[in-house]
Design goal:
Helix content is about 35%, strand content about 25%. By secondary structure, the protein is an alpha/beta fold. It has one domain: Rossmann fold (3-Layer(aba) Sandwich), CATH 3.40.50. The longest helix is centred in the N-terminal third of the chain and has 16 residues. It is globular. It binds S-adenosylmethionine.
Length: about 200
Protein backbone atom coordinates (compact mmCIF):
# COMPACT_ATOMS: atom_id res chain seq x y z
CA UNK A 1 0.00 0.00 0.00
CA UNK A 2 1.45 3.42 -0.99
CA UNK A 3 2.67 5.57 1.89
CA UNK A 4 4.01 8.38 -0.24
CA UNK A 5 2.11 11.03 -2.15
CA UNK A 6 2.17 11.01 -5.96
CA UNK A 7 4.61 13.94 -5.85
CA UNK A 8 7.04 12.06 -3.63
CA UNK A 9 6.64 8.85 -5.64
CA UNK A 10 7.46 10.74 -8.84
CA UNK A 11 10.49 12.38 -7.20
CA UNK A 12 11.75 9.05 -5.89
CA UNK A 13 11.62 7.58 -9.43
CA UNK A 14 13.12 10.60 -11.20
CA UNK A 15 16.42 10.66 -13.10
CA UNK A 16 17.71 13.71 -11.14
CA UNK A 17 17.18 11.88 -7.83
CA UNK A 18 18.91 8.76 -9.17
CA UNK A 19 21.91 10.78 -10.30
CA UNK A 20 22.09 12.74 -7.04
CA UNK A 21 21.67 9.55 -5.00
CA UNK A 22 24.58 7.88 -6.77
CA UNK A 23 26.95 10.84 -6.88
CA UNK A 24 26.34 12.49 -3.52
CA UNK A 25 23.81 10.86 -1.21
CA UNK A 26 25.21 7.33 -1.02
CA UNK A 27 28.86 8.34 -0.38
CA UNK A 28 27.71 10.79 2.30
CA UNK A 29 25.22 8.38 3.92
CA UNK A 30 27.71 5.51 4.15
CA UNK A 31 30.65 7.71 5.14
CA UNK A 32 33.55 5.24 5.42
CA UNK A 33 31.39 2.12 5.78
CA UNK A 34 32.44 -0.42 3.14
CA UNK A 35 29.69 -2.93 2.30
CA UNK A 36 30.13 -6.58 1.40
CA UNK A 37 28.26 -9.86 1.71
CA UNK A 38 24.51 -10.06 2.31
CA UNK A 39 22.85 -6.67 2.46
CA UNK A 40 19.19 -5.78 3.02
CA UNK A 41 17.71 -2.43 2.07
CA UNK A 42 14.40 -1.51 3.69
CA UNK A 43 12.12 1.02 1.99
CA UNK A 44 14.22 0.90 -1.16
CA UNK A 45 11.68 2.82 -3.27
CA UNK A 46 12.46 2.76 -6.98
CA UNK A 47 15.94 1.31 -6.36
CA UNK A 48 18.02 4.49 -6.79
CA UNK A 49 20.24 3.85 -3.77
CA UNK A 50 20.24 0.09 -4.39
CA UNK A 51 21.66 0.64 -7.90
CA UNK A 52 24.34 2.92 -6.46
CA UNK A 53 25.24 0.30 -3.83
CA UNK A 54 25.50 -2.47 -6.44
CA UNK A 55 27.72 -0.30 -8.66
CA UNK A 56 30.02 0.75 -5.85
CA UNK A 57 30.37 -2.58 -4.02
CA UNK A 58 30.79 -5.51 -6.46
CA UNK A 59 30.86 -8.06 -3.59
CA UNK A 60 27.40 -7.16 -2.31
CA UNK A 61 24.39 -9.45 -2.70
CA UNK A 62 21.40 -7.22 -2.09
CA UNK A 63 17.77 -7.77 -1.16
CA UNK A 64 15.90 -4.54 -1.87
CA UNK A 65 12.51 -4.33 -0.14
CA UNK A 66 9.60 -1.92 -0.02
CA UNK A 67 6.03 -2.05 1.27
CA UNK A 68 4.56 -0.39 -1.83
CA UNK A 69 4.02 -2.77 -4.78
CA UNK A 70 4.38 0.11 -7.28
CA UNK A 71 7.85 0.83 -5.88
CA UNK A 72 8.73 -2.87 -5.99
CA UNK A 73 7.75 -2.92 -9.69
CA UNK A 74 9.83 0.18 -10.39
CA UNK A 75 12.85 -1.26 -8.57
CA UNK A 76 12.45 -4.60 -10.35
CA UNK A 77 12.82 -2.86 -13.72
CA UNK A 78 15.57 -0.54 -12.54
CA UNK A 79 17.71 -3.30 -11.01
CA UNK A 80 17.19 -6.04 -13.62
CA UNK A 81 20.62 -5.37 -15.11
CA UNK A 82 22.32 -6.59 -11.89
CA UNK A 83 21.00 -10.13 -12.42
CA UNK A 84 21.26 -12.52 -9.50
CA UNK A 85 23.21 -10.08 -7.33
CA UNK A 86 19.88 -8.52 -6.38
CA UNK A 87 16.43 -9.66 -5.34
CA UNK A 88 13.48 -7.29 -5.01
CA UNK A 89 10.64 -8.10 -2.65
CA UNK A 90 7.54 -6.51 -1.20
CA UNK A 91 8.22 -6.51 2.54
CA UNK A 92 7.01 -4.31 5.39
CA UNK A 93 9.97 -3.10 7.41
CA UNK A 94 8.06 -3.60 10.66
CA UNK A 95 7.71 -7.32 10.00
CA UNK A 96 10.75 -8.60 8.12
CA UNK A 97 10.33 -12.08 6.71
CA UNK A 98 13.95 -13.03 7.37
CA UNK A 99 15.64 -15.19 9.99
CA UNK A 100 17.60 -13.68 12.85
CA UNK A 101 21.27 -12.91 12.21
CA UNK A 102 21.32 -13.30 8.42
CA UNK A 103 22.59 -9.96 6.98
CA UNK A 104 25.97 -8.25 7.13
CA UNK A 105 24.34 -4.84 6.72
CA UNK A 106 20.89 -3.27 6.65
CA UNK A 107 20.37 0.02 4.82
CA UNK A 108 17.61 2.51 5.61
CA UNK A 109 17.62 5.65 3.49
CA UNK A 110 15.01 8.35 4.00
CA UNK A 111 12.28 5.88 4.80
CA UNK A 112 11.79 5.55 8.57
CA UNK A 113 9.78 8.78 8.79
CA UNK A 114 7.18 7.16 6.50
CA UNK A 115 6.80 4.21 8.88
CA UNK A 116 4.22 4.77 11.61
CA UNK A 117 5.89 2.17 13.82
CA UNK A 118 9.47 3.17 12.99
CA UNK A 119 10.70 1.95 16.39
CA UNK A 120 9.53 -1.54 15.37
CA UNK A 121 11.37 -1.24 12.05
CA UNK A 122 14.58 -0.52 13.98
CA UNK A 123 14.05 -3.58 16.21
CA UNK A 124 13.52 -5.72 13.12
CA UNK A 125 16.56 -4.32 11.31
CA UNK A 126 18.81 -5.16 14.26
CA UNK A 127 17.23 -8.60 14.69
CA UNK A 128 18.13 -9.70 11.15
CA UNK A 129 21.73 -8.44 11.38
CA UNK A 130 24.54 -10.85 12.10
CA UNK A 131 26.53 -10.04 15.25
CA UNK A 132 28.97 -7.32 14.18
CA UNK A 133 26.69 -6.32 11.29
CA UNK A 134 25.67 -2.73 10.82
CA UNK A 135 22.48 -0.74 10.25
CA UNK A 136 23.40 2.38 8.29
CA UNK A 137 21.15 5.13 7.10
CA UNK A 138 19.80 8.61 7.30
CA UNK A 139 16.42 10.23 7.70
CA UNK A 140 14.55 13.46 8.04
CA UNK A 141 14.14 14.84 11.54
CA UNK A 142 11.07 16.64 12.78
CA UNK A 143 11.60 20.29 11.90
CA UNK A 144 9.21 22.99 10.66
CA UNK A 145 10.34 22.54 7.00
CA UNK A 146 9.85 18.74 7.17
CA UNK A 147 6.41 19.18 8.80
CA UNK A 148 5.46 21.73 6.14
CA UNK A 149 6.60 19.63 3.17
CA UNK A 150 4.82 16.50 4.38
CA UNK A 151 1.72 18.49 5.33
CA UNK A 152 1.54 19.94 1.81
CA UNK A 153 2.28 16.78 -0.15
CA UNK A 154 0.08 14.58 2.03
CA UNK A 155 2.47 11.63 2.46
CA UNK A 156 1.83 9.36 5.44
CA UNK A 157 4.56 10.16 7.94
CA UNK A 158 5.57 10.20 11.58
CA UNK A 159 8.58 12.45 11.94
CA UNK A 160 10.82 12.04 14.97
CA UNK A 161 13.45 14.02 16.82
CA UNK A 162 16.95 12.91 17.73
CA UNK A 163 16.14 12.30 21.44
CA UNK A 164 13.27 10.01 20.37
CA UNK A 165 15.64 8.10 18.10
CA UNK A 166 18.17 7.84 20.92
CA UNK A 167 15.48 6.49 23.25
CA UNK A 168 14.32 3.97 20.65
CA UNK A 169 17.81 2.51 20.18
CA UNK A 170 18.74 2.57 23.87
CA UNK A 171 17.51 -0.97 24.53
CA UNK A 172 18.68 -2.52 21.27
CA UNK A 173 21.64 -4.94 21.29
CA UNK A 174 24.02 -2.49 19.62
CA UNK A 175 27.39 -0.96 20.40
CA UNK A 176 27.52 2.73 21.33
CA UNK A 177 25.14 4.23 18.74
CA UNK A 178 26.48 6.71 16.22
CA UNK A 179 23.58 9.14 15.73
CA UNK A 180 24.45 12.47 14.17
CA UNK A 181 22.39 15.52 13.46
CA UNK A 182 23.37 17.07 10.11
CA UNK A 183 22.62 20.08 7.93
CA UNK A 184 21.39 22.25 10.78
CA UNK A 185 19.34 19.48 12.38
CA UNK A 186 17.26 18.72 9.29
CA UNK A 187 18.47 15.15 8.96
CA UNK A 188 20.01 12.45 11.09
CA UNK A 189 22.71 10.07 9.90
CA UNK A 190 22.92 6.85 11.91
CA UNK A 191 25.14 3.80 12.25
CA UNK A 192 24.21 1.02 14.68
CA UNK A 193 26.50 -1.98 15.00
CA UNK A 194 25.00 -5.15 16.49
CA UNK A 195 26.95 -6.46 19.44
CA UNK A 196 29.10 -9.55 18.81
C1 LIG B 1 11.19 8.66 0.46
S1 LIG B 1 11.15 7.01 -0.15
C2 LIG B 1 12.86 6.58 -0.12
C3 LIG B 1 13.18 5.52 -1.10
C4 LIG B 1 14.65 5.12 -1.17
N1 LIG B 1 15.14 4.65 0.12
C5 LIG B 1 15.53 6.23 -1.70
O1 LIG B 1 16.32 6.77 -0.90
O2 LIG B 1 15.45 6.54 -2.88
C6 LIG B 1 10.47 6.06 1.22
C7 LIG B 1 10.10 4.63 0.85
O3 LIG B 1 9.74 3.93 2.03
C8 LIG B 1 8.70 3.03 1.69
N2 LIG B 1 7.99 2.62 2.91
C9 LIG B 1 7.13 3.32 3.65
N3 LIG B 1 6.68 2.60 4.69
C10 LIG B 1 7.30 1.40 4.62
C11 LIG B 1 7.28 0.23 5.41
N4 LIG B 1 6.50 0.12 6.51
N5 LIG B 1 8.06 -0.82 5.05
C12 LIG B 1 8.83 -0.74 3.93
N6 LIG B 1 8.88 0.34 3.14
C13 LIG B 1 8.13 1.40 3.47
C14 LIG B 1 7.85 3.80 0.71
O4 LIG B 1 7.00 2.96 -0.05
C15 LIG B 1 8.93 4.50 -0.11
O5 LIG B 1 9.29 3.74 -1.23
Amino acid sequence: MPTMSRIEQAFCRSAPWRAFAKRSVLPWALADEALSGDVLEIGSGSGAMAAAVLERFPDVRLIATDADPAMVDAATSRLARYGDRVEIRQVDSTSLEFDDDCFDAVLSFLMLHHVMRWERALVEAIRVLRPGGVLVGYDLLETPPARFIHGVDGSAHRLFRLPELRAAVADLPVEVPDLASCFGGIVTQFRLRKVK
